[in-house]
Amino acid sequence: MKEIRSLSAEELAGELEAMGEKKFRASQIFDWLHRRPVDSFDEMTNLPVSLRGRLAAQFSLVSLKAVNVLTSRIDGTKKFLFELPDGNVIESVWMSYHHGNSVCISSQVGCRMGCCFCASTLDGLVRGLKPSEMLEQVYQIRKLTKERVDNIVVMGSGEPLDNYENLLRFIRLLTDERGQNISGRSITVSTCGLVPQIYRLAEEKLGLTLALSLHAGDQETREKLMPIARRYELSEVLAACDHYFETTGRRISYEYSLVHGVNDTLEHAKALAGLLGKRNCHVNLIPVNPIKERDFTRGARKETEAFQEVLEKSGISATIRREMGRDIEGACGQLRRSYLGSRANAQETGEVIL
């Protein structure tokens, strides 16, 4: 059964035509799916009841269920745990900044990239998310918060470029002027450095911001933290990022998680500055979020500021990321693992998890 929310407007029109329906019905349905997203065909009140029944018989309409919502007492950040139709769970985050509201979504259930400081990858990859499941994170958060969404960050669980075709369809649906009409400039896609896909994404001319999870200024250190670095050398990754900037004109954002004693010394800062050179880029410095499965820790604030100063003196724009949702398991994968652990214990004891 086809998922109707994953269809483009043109594909939807073709499906309705094949059903013998009038052309304008496709526009009405697309509006219900994306501009005023509903959870069921019965909510499409300007459609005949008979057509709603035919749609329900021929298509599935994905709707995510929020099984847990945590709100930070520190900054109001909200973390959502959504259940997918197949019972898997994923995380999304809503954050409010002075420049608008941002939603960070997941692109996969789990992850196979193996980055040592990330909880998302501890149980490996289950599957990639479908376009409708990515869209639904945005749509459900809008409904639940009753707030507008200004920016989308595909930086939750999973490697977006490892789910390339579904990611691309998600972006095209999200930016469609007949739906949410969100500008590509308001969307950031994060990657740990899948080189062929970076080149492909550049040619799509979508105007997205690309964020590279860099985390080291030299090959040896990066390999310790990120297994993918053994497949793609730093020189290859940076060449792909340079191509993306040259093709799109969009400045690259380099993400750098600071792990105490591993990649956060002044020598590491100098190596990073030398690596990036005079590139038109921005570096996000992120004090690592400790997870119980790893013994990584973060350094003192003054050490992070000293690291930042080295970059800025080298002419590189760098900021220390404002930490959002520290009190609600804000880092990728933490809430999901906690929930899965509770669910497994409940199954053993016969308890019910609400």
Keywords:
354 residues, 10-stranded mixed β-sheet, 11 helices, 20% strand, globular
What does this structure look like?
With 354 residues, the chain is of the alpha/beta class. Helices cover 37% and strands 20% of the residues. It contains eleven helices and 14 strands. The chain has helices spanning 9-18, 24-35, 49-58, 131-145, 164-175, 195-204, 219-225, 234-248, 266-276, 301-313, 334-349, and strands spanning 2-3, 59-60, 65-71, 78-83, 89-97, 100-105, 108-110, 125-128, 151-154, 187-191, 209-213, 252-258, 281-287, 317-320. Helix 9 links the parallel strand 12 (252-258) and strand 13 (281-287). Helix 1 (9-18) packs across helix 2, helix 6 packs parallel to helix 8 and helix 9 packs parallel to helix 10 (301-313).
Number of helices: 11
Radius of gyration: 21 Å
**Strand fraction:** 15-25%
Give me the strand/helix succession: EHHHEEEEEEEHEHEHEHHEHEHEH
Q: Which strand order spans the largest sheet, edge to edge or round the barrel? A: 3-4-5-6-9-10-11-12-13-14
Distance between the termini: 29 Å
Mean pLDDT comes to: 92
Helix share bin: 25-40%
What can be said about the biggest beta sheet? Answer: 10 strands, mixed
- Pairing-aware structural class of the strands and helices? alpha/beta
Quick one: overall form? globular
Number of DSSP-assigned strands: 14
Unreliable segments of 5+ consecutive residues: none
